[in-house]
Write a structure and sequence with these properties.
Radius of gyration: 27 Å
Distance between the termini: 53 Å
Subunit structure: Forms a conjugate with ATG5.
Membrane topology: Peripheral membrane protein
Protein name: Ubiquitin-like protein ATG12
Largest sheet: 2 strands, antiparallel
Main location: membrane
Number of helices: 2
Order of helices and strands: HEEH
Strand content: 5-15%
GO molecular function: Atg8-family ligase activity
Number of strands: 2
Strand order of the largest sheet: 1-2
């Protein structure tokens, strides 16, 4: 606004747009590079803790490390094997953080 109370025609200076650091700033990668990166195994691990609730059997060991790229179905299959559950036996698994 100008001193006379009318809006001024000056626009505010343009602000710089922050770029997302996850976005690549260089040229796009070639398809063969993208495929090679996708096929590479992820070696990072996550810790999985199992806790028996209700009348579930208690496991001798309840803390395991698994590869982070595993799907949740792999955790269920592992748990069935450890508990000697058949595929037809009901198994409920709750996932949470903490």
């Amino acid at each position: 606004m100008s001193s006379s109370g009318t809006p001024s025609s000056e626009s505010p200076p343009p602000t710089a747009i922050a770029q997302d650091p996850a976005e690549p700033t260089g040229p796009p990668a070639s398809p063969s590079t993208v495929i090679a990166n996708h096929k590479r195994k992820d070696t990072s691990k996550v810790i999985v803790r199992f806790r028996a609730i209700g009348n579930a059997p208690i496991m001798k060991q309840n803390v395991f490390k698994i590869t982070a790229s595993n799907k949740f179905m792999a955790v269920i299959q592992f748990l069935r094997k450890e508990l000697n559950y058949q595929h037809s036996d009901p198994l409920r698994v709750l996932a949470g953080t903490g």
